[in-house]
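Running co-folding for acetoacetyl-coenzyme A.
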Amino acid sequence: MFKGLVGLVTGGASGLGRATVEQLLKQGGRVVICDLPSSPGQETAKQLKENVAFVPIDVTSEKDVKNALQTTVDKFGRLDVVVNCAGVATATRVYNFKKEQPFDLKSFQRTIEVNLIGTFNVIRLAAGLIGKNAPDADGQRGVIINTASVAAFDGQIGQAAYSASKAGVVGMTLPIARDLAKQGIRVVTIAPGLFRTPMMEMLPEPAIKSLEATVPFPPRLGHPSEFALLVQSIIQNPMLNGETIRLDGSLRMQP
Ligand SMILES: CC(=O)CC(=O)SCCNC(=O)CCNC(=O)[C@H](O)C(C)(C)COP(=O)(O)OP(=O)(O)OC[C@H]1O[C@@H](n2cnc3c(N)ncnc32)[C@H](O)[C@@H]1OP(=O)(O)O
Ligand SMILES: NC(=O)C1=CN([C@@H]2O[C@H](COP(=O)(O)OP(=O)(O)OC[C@H]3O[C@@H](n4cnc5c(N)ncnc54)[C@H](O)[C@@H]3O)[C@@H](O)[C@H]2O)C=CC1
Protein backbone atom coordinates (compact mmCIF):
# COMPACT_ATOMS: atom_id res chain seq x y z
CA MET A 1 0.00 0.00 0.00
CA PHE A 2 2.85 2.40 0.87
CA LYS A 3 5.34 1.03 -1.66
CA GLY A 4 8.11 3.57 -2.18
CA LEU A 5 6.92 5.82 0.66
CA VAL A 6 9.69 7.05 2.96
CA GLY A 7 8.87 7.86 6.58
CA LEU A 8 10.87 9.33 9.43
CA VAL A 9 9.64 8.47 12.93
CA THR A 10 11.02 10.26 15.98
CA GLY A 11 10.83 8.27 19.20
CA GLY A 12 10.72 5.29 16.81
CA ALA A 13 12.66 2.96 19.09
CA SER A 14 9.84 2.52 21.61
CA GLY A 15 6.11 2.40 22.22
CA LEU A 16 3.85 4.28 19.81
CA GLY A 17 6.77 5.26 17.57
CA ARG A 18 8.00 1.70 17.23
CA ALA A 19 4.50 0.42 16.38
CA THR A 20 4.31 3.12 13.70
CA VAL A 21 7.65 2.05 12.24
CA GLU A 22 6.41 -1.56 12.07
CA GLN A 23 3.12 -0.54 10.42
CA LEU A 24 4.83 1.59 7.76
CA LEU A 25 7.24 -1.26 6.98
CA LYS A 26 4.37 -3.78 6.84
CA GLN A 27 2.65 -1.60 4.26
CA GLY A 28 5.76 -1.53 2.07
CA GLY A 29 7.29 1.75 3.22
CA ARG A 30 10.89 2.53 4.09
CA VAL A 31 11.61 4.11 7.45
CA VAL A 32 14.25 6.09 9.30
CA ILE A 33 14.02 5.60 13.06
CA CYS A 34 15.19 8.67 14.97
CA ASP A 35 15.68 8.34 18.69
CA LEU A 36 18.16 9.12 21.45
CA PRO A 37 21.59 7.47 21.24
CA SER A 38 20.74 5.76 24.56
CA SER A 39 17.54 4.23 23.10
CA PRO A 40 17.31 0.70 21.68
CA GLY A 41 17.07 2.21 18.15
CA GLN A 42 20.03 0.29 16.76
CA GLU A 43 18.71 -3.10 17.99
CA THR A 44 15.22 -2.21 16.76
CA ALA A 45 16.54 -1.47 13.27
CA LYS A 46 18.49 -4.74 13.29
CA GLN A 47 15.41 -6.72 14.33
CA LEU A 48 13.28 -5.14 11.62
CA LYS A 49 16.04 -5.84 9.07
CA GLU A 50 15.13 -4.40 5.66
CA ASN A 51 14.18 -0.91 4.52
CA VAL A 52 14.95 0.61 7.87
CA ALA A 53 17.76 2.74 9.26
CA PHE A 54 18.47 4.17 12.70
CA VAL A 55 19.87 7.66 13.25
CA PRO A 56 20.63 8.64 16.84
CA ILE A 57 19.27 12.13 17.49
CA ASP A 58 17.99 14.47 20.15
CA VAL A 59 14.95 16.16 18.60
CA THR A 60 15.90 19.46 20.24
CA SER A 61 19.17 19.65 18.28
CA GLU A 62 19.24 21.37 14.88
CA LYS A 63 22.46 19.57 13.96
CA ASP A 64 21.08 16.12 14.84
CA VAL A 65 17.84 16.61 12.92
CA LYS A 66 19.66 17.96 9.86
CA ASN A 67 21.94 14.93 10.01
CA ALA A 68 18.92 12.59 10.16
CA LEU A 69 17.36 14.28 7.13
CA GLN A 70 20.63 13.98 5.20
CA THR A 71 20.82 10.27 6.07
CA THR A 72 17.23 9.88 4.87
CA VAL A 73 18.14 11.39 1.50
CA ASP A 74 21.40 9.43 1.23
CA LYS A 75 19.71 6.14 2.05
CA PHE A 76 16.24 6.43 0.55
CA GLY A 77 16.40 9.49 -1.74
CA ARG A 78 13.33 11.34 -0.42
CA LEU A 79 11.00 11.97 2.53
CA ASP A 80 7.19 11.67 2.38
CA VAL A 81 5.97 11.31 5.95
CA VAL A 82 7.21 12.50 9.33
CA VAL A 83 5.70 11.07 12.50
CA ASN A 84 6.73 12.93 15.65
CA CYS A 85 6.48 10.54 18.60
CA ALA A 86 9.53 11.53 20.68
CA GLY A 87 8.39 12.76 24.06
CA VAL A 88 8.91 12.75 27.80
CA ALA A 89 6.40 12.73 30.66
CA THR A 90 6.75 14.55 33.97
CA ALA A 91 4.53 14.48 37.07
CA THR A 92 5.09 17.16 39.72
CA ARG A 93 2.75 19.48 41.56
CA VAL A 94 3.26 23.19 40.88
CA TYR A 95 4.13 23.62 44.58
CA ASN A 96 4.86 20.92 47.14
CA PHE A 97 3.46 22.34 50.39
CA LYS A 98 4.86 19.47 52.46
CA LYS A 99 8.44 20.19 51.36
CA GLU A 100 7.83 23.91 50.64
CA GLN A 101 9.28 23.34 47.21
CA PRO A 102 8.15 24.91 43.94
CA PHE A 103 8.14 22.97 40.65
CA ASP A 104 11.72 22.78 39.38
CA LEU A 105 11.92 25.30 36.54
CA LYS A 106 14.58 23.32 34.62
CA SER A 107 12.31 20.28 34.58
CA PHE A 108 9.41 22.41 33.24
CA GLN A 109 11.69 23.89 30.58
CA ARG A 110 13.05 20.50 29.47
CA THR A 111 9.54 19.07 29.07
CA ILE A 112 8.58 22.00 26.84
CA GLU A 113 11.88 21.76 25.02
CA VAL A 114 11.51 18.09 24.07
CA ASN A 115 7.75 17.77 23.53
CA LEU A 116 6.97 21.14 21.96
CA ILE A 117 10.17 22.73 20.68
CA GLY A 118 11.61 19.36 19.62
CA THR A 119 8.47 18.61 17.60
CA PHE A 120 8.63 22.07 16.01
CA ASN A 121 12.35 21.66 15.28
CA VAL A 122 11.69 18.46 13.33
CA ILE A 123 8.71 19.95 11.48
CA ARG A 124 10.52 23.13 10.40
CA LEU A 125 13.54 21.24 9.05
CA ALA A 126 11.66 18.30 7.49
CA ALA A 127 9.19 20.58 5.68
CA GLY A 128 11.97 21.82 3.38
CA LEU A 129 12.83 18.29 2.33
CA ILE A 130 9.22 17.14 1.87
CA GLY A 131 8.58 20.29 -0.17
CA LYS A 132 11.12 19.07 -2.75
CA ASN A 133 8.83 16.16 -3.72
CA ALA A 134 6.89 16.38 -6.96
CA PRO A 135 3.19 16.81 -6.10
CA ASP A 136 0.83 13.86 -6.65
CA ALA A 137 -2.34 14.14 -8.75
CA ASP A 138 -4.05 15.89 -5.81
CA GLY A 139 -1.19 18.37 -5.35
CA GLN A 140 0.10 16.64 -2.22
CA ARG A 141 3.80 16.45 -1.41
CA GLY A 142 3.70 14.81 2.01
CA VAL A 143 2.27 14.53 5.51
CA ILE A 144 3.47 15.52 8.98
CA ILE A 145 1.86 13.76 11.96
CA ASN A 146 2.45 14.91 15.54
CA THR A 147 1.67 13.29 18.88
CA ALA A 148 0.00 15.39 21.57
CA SER A 149 -2.00 13.76 24.39
CA VAL A 150 -5.45 13.97 25.95
CA ALA A 151 -3.50 15.72 28.73
CA ALA A 152 -3.45 18.74 26.39
CA PHE A 153 -7.17 19.05 27.21
CA ASP A 154 -7.70 17.35 30.58
CA GLY A 155 -4.35 17.30 32.34
CA GLN A 156 -4.27 15.71 35.80
CA ILE A 157 -2.75 16.87 39.06
CA GLY A 158 0.99 17.13 38.43
CA GLN A 159 0.74 17.50 34.67
CA ALA A 160 1.26 21.27 34.26
CA ALA A 161 4.48 20.94 32.24
CA TYR A 162 3.39 17.93 30.21
CA SER A 163 -0.06 19.37 29.45
CA ALA A 164 1.41 22.75 28.48
CA SER A 165 3.85 21.08 26.10
CA LYS A 166 1.13 18.99 24.46
CA ALA A 167 -1.34 21.88 24.29
CA GLY A 168 1.42 23.72 22.40
CA VAL A 169 1.54 20.91 19.86
CA VAL A 170 -2.26 21.08 19.46
CA GLY A 171 -2.11 24.87 19.14
CA MET A 172 0.50 24.93 16.40
CA THR A 173 -1.16 22.24 14.28
CA LEU A 174 -3.57 24.53 12.40
CA PRO A 175 -1.18 27.43 11.76
CA ILE A 176 1.52 25.07 10.49
CA ALA A 177 -1.01 23.30 8.26
CA ARG A 178 -1.93 26.73 6.89
CA ASP A 179 1.75 27.66 6.45
CA LEU A 180 2.43 24.52 4.44
CA ALA A 181 -0.85 24.31 2.51
CA LYS A 182 0.56 25.95 -0.64
CA GLN A 183 3.24 23.26 -0.80
CA GLY A 184 0.63 20.51 -0.43
CA ILE A 185 1.96 19.28 2.91
CA ARG A 186 -0.70 18.18 5.43
CA VAL A 187 -0.23 18.47 9.19
CA VAL A 188 -2.32 16.39 11.59
CA THR A 189 -1.94 15.73 15.32
CA ILE A 190 -3.05 12.66 17.27
CA ALA A 191 -3.99 13.12 20.94
CA PRO A 192 -3.76 9.61 22.41
CA GLY A 193 -5.49 8.59 25.61
CA LEU A 194 -3.85 5.74 27.51
CA PHE A 195 -1.63 3.29 25.63
CA ARG A 196 0.46 0.49 27.09
CA THR A 197 4.03 1.57 26.35
CA PRO A 198 7.24 1.93 28.39
CA MET A 199 6.18 5.54 29.16
CA MET A 200 2.88 4.40 30.64
CA GLU A 201 4.60 1.55 32.47
CA MET A 202 6.62 4.11 34.46
CA LEU A 203 3.42 4.67 36.45
CA PRO A 204 2.81 2.25 39.33
CA GLU A 205 0.50 -0.63 38.28
CA PRO A 206 -2.32 0.47 40.68
CA ALA A 207 -2.25 3.92 39.04
CA ILE A 208 -2.44 2.30 35.59
CA LYS A 209 -5.35 0.12 36.73
CA SER A 210 -7.26 3.09 38.15
CA LEU A 211 -6.69 5.12 34.98
CA GLU A 212 -7.75 2.15 32.86
CA ALA A 213 -10.99 1.88 34.83
CA THR A 214 -11.94 5.38 33.69
CA VAL A 215 -11.92 4.55 29.97
CA PRO A 216 -15.58 4.14 28.86
CA PHE A 217 -15.05 1.88 25.84
CA PRO A 218 -13.08 -0.16 25.15
CA PRO A 219 -12.33 -0.25 28.91
CA ARG A 220 -8.63 -0.94 28.58
CA LEU A 221 -5.34 0.67 27.60
CA GLY A 222 -4.88 1.10 23.87
CA HIS A 223 -2.53 -1.12 21.91
CA PRO A 224 0.32 0.78 20.20
CA SER A 225 -0.78 -0.92 16.93
CA GLU A 226 -4.08 1.03 17.21
CA PHE A 227 -2.12 4.29 17.24
CA ALA A 228 -0.19 3.08 14.18
CA LEU A 229 -3.47 2.28 12.43
CA LEU A 230 -4.56 5.91 12.81
CA VAL A 231 -1.22 7.07 11.42
CA GLN A 232 -1.90 4.90 8.40
CA SER A 233 -5.44 6.31 7.97
CA ILE A 234 -4.16 9.89 8.20
CA ILE A 235 -1.59 9.19 5.49
CA GLN A 236 -4.27 7.63 3.30
CA ASN A 237 -6.97 10.29 3.72
CA PRO A 238 -6.12 13.50 1.86
CA MET A 239 -8.96 15.50 3.47
CA LEU A 240 -7.50 15.23 6.98
CA ASN A 241 -5.53 18.38 7.65
CA GLY A 242 -4.95 20.99 10.37
CA GLU A 243 -6.80 18.92 12.97
CA THR A 244 -6.10 17.16 16.27
CA ILE A 245 -7.77 13.76 16.60
CA ARG A 246 -8.37 12.27 20.05
CA LEU A 247 -7.72 8.51 20.13
CA ASP A 248 -8.91 7.65 23.60
CA GLY A 249 -11.97 5.33 23.87
CA SER A 250 -13.89 8.50 24.90
CA LEU A 251 -11.74 8.92 28.04
CA ARG A 252 -11.92 12.28 29.83
CA MET A 253 -9.24 12.15 32.53
CA GLN A 254 -10.26 13.02 36.09
CA PRO A 255 -8.20 15.43 38.24
C1 LIG B 1 1.13 9.80 29.03
C2 LIG B 1 -0.09 10.48 28.53
O1 LIG B 1 0.00 11.36 27.69
C3 LIG B 1 -1.38 10.07 29.05
C4 LIG B 1 -1.56 10.56 30.43
O2 LIG B 1 -1.54 11.74 30.64
S1 LIG B 1 -1.78 9.38 31.59
C5 LIG B 1 -2.11 10.24 33.08
C6 LIG B 1 -0.85 10.49 33.73
N1 LIG B 1 -1.15 11.05 35.01
C7 LIG B 1 -0.19 11.35 35.83
O3 LIG B 1 0.98 11.14 35.55
C8 LIG B 1 -0.62 11.94 37.14
C9 LIG B 1 0.49 12.72 37.69
N2 LIG B 1 0.23 12.98 39.10
C10 LIG B 1 0.78 12.25 40.09
O4 LIG B 1 1.47 11.27 39.88
C11 LIG B 1 0.57 12.74 41.50
O5 LIG B 1 -0.64 13.45 41.55
C12 LIG B 1 1.69 13.63 41.98
C13 LIG B 1 2.95 12.76 42.08
C14 LIG B 1 1.94 14.79 41.05
C15 LIG B 1 1.29 14.22 43.31
O6 LIG B 1 1.23 13.24 44.27
P1 LIG B 1 1.03 13.65 45.80
O7 LIG B 1 1.41 15.05 46.06
O8 LIG B 1 1.65 12.56 46.55
O9 LIG B 1 -0.46 13.67 45.95
P2 LIG B 1 -1.31 12.56 46.66
O10 LIG B 1 -1.15 12.74 48.14
O11 LIG B 1 -0.99 11.24 46.06
O12 LIG B 1 -2.75 12.98 46.23
C16 LIG B 1 -3.37 14.16 46.68
C17 LIG B 1 -4.76 14.15 46.15
O13 LIG B 1 -4.74 14.18 44.71
C18 LIG B 1 -5.37 13.00 44.19
N3 LIG B 1 -4.58 12.52 43.09
C19 LIG B 1 -3.28 12.49 42.99
N4 LIG B 1 -2.91 11.98 41.82
C20 LIG B 1 -4.03 11.69 41.18
C21 LIG B 1 -4.34 11.11 39.93
N5 LIG B 1 -3.37 10.73 39.08
N6 LIG B 1 -5.63 10.95 39.57
C22 LIG B 1 -6.61 11.32 40.40
N7 LIG B 1 -6.38 11.86 41.59
C23 LIG B 1 -5.12 12.04 41.98
C24 LIG B 1 -5.33 12.00 45.31
O14 LIG B 1 -6.42 11.06 45.20
C25 LIG B 1 -5.53 12.89 46.53
O15 LIG B 1 -6.89 13.23 46.69
P3 LIG B 1 -7.46 13.65 48.15
O16 LIG B 1 -6.72 14.91 48.51
O17 LIG B 1 -8.92 13.84 47.91
O18 LIG B 1 -7.12 12.52 49.07
N1 LIG C 1 1.65 5.99 26.09
C1 LIG C 1 0.62 6.79 26.24
O1 LIG C 1 -0.39 6.46 26.87
C2 LIG C 1 0.64 8.16 25.63
C3 LIG C 1 1.74 8.68 25.00
N2 LIG C 1 1.66 9.94 24.45
C4 LIG C 1 2.79 10.51 23.71
O2 LIG C 1 3.17 9.63 22.68
C5 LIG C 1 4.54 9.76 22.40
C6 LIG C 1 5.19 8.40 22.44
O3 LIG C 1 5.10 7.93 23.77
P1 LIG C 1 5.31 6.42 24.20
O4 LIG C 1 5.56 5.59 23.01
O5 LIG C 1 4.23 6.09 25.12
O6 LIG C 1 6.64 6.59 25.08
P2 LIG C 1 8.02 5.84 25.07
O7 LIG C 1 8.74 6.36 26.25
O8 LIG C 1 7.81 4.38 24.91
O9 LIG C 1 8.71 6.39 23.73
C7 LIG C 1 9.17 7.69 23.61
C8 LIG C 1 10.47 7.68 22.82
O10 LIG C 1 10.89 9.04 22.67
C9 LIG C 1 12.29 9.06 22.79
N3 LIG C 1 12.76 10.39 23.16
C10 LIG C 1 12.58 11.03 24.34
N4 LIG C 1 13.21 12.21 24.32
C11 LIG C 1 13.79 12.34 23.09
C12 LIG C 1 14.59 13.33 22.48
N5 LIG C 1 14.91 14.45 23.11
N6 LIG C 1 15.02 13.12 21.20
C13 LIG C 1 14.71 11.97 20.56
N7 LIG C 1 13.96 10.99 21.09
C14 LIG C 1 13.51 11.17 22.35
C15 LIG C 1 12.58 8.02 23.87
O11 LIG C 1 13.94 7.60 23.82
C16 LIG C 1 11.60 6.93 23.54
O12 LIG C 1 12.15 5.96 22.68
C17 LIG C 1 5.08 10.75 23.42
O13 LIG C 1 5.16 12.03 22.82
C18 LIG C 1 4.04 10.74 24.52
O14 LIG C 1 4.02 11.95 25.22
C19 LIG C 1 0.53 10.69 24.51
C20 LIG C 1 -0.57 10.21 25.14
C21 LIG C 1 -0.62 8.92 25.76
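Result summary
The longest strand covers residues 185-192.
Residues 190 and 230 are 8 Å apart (CA to CA).
Job closed.
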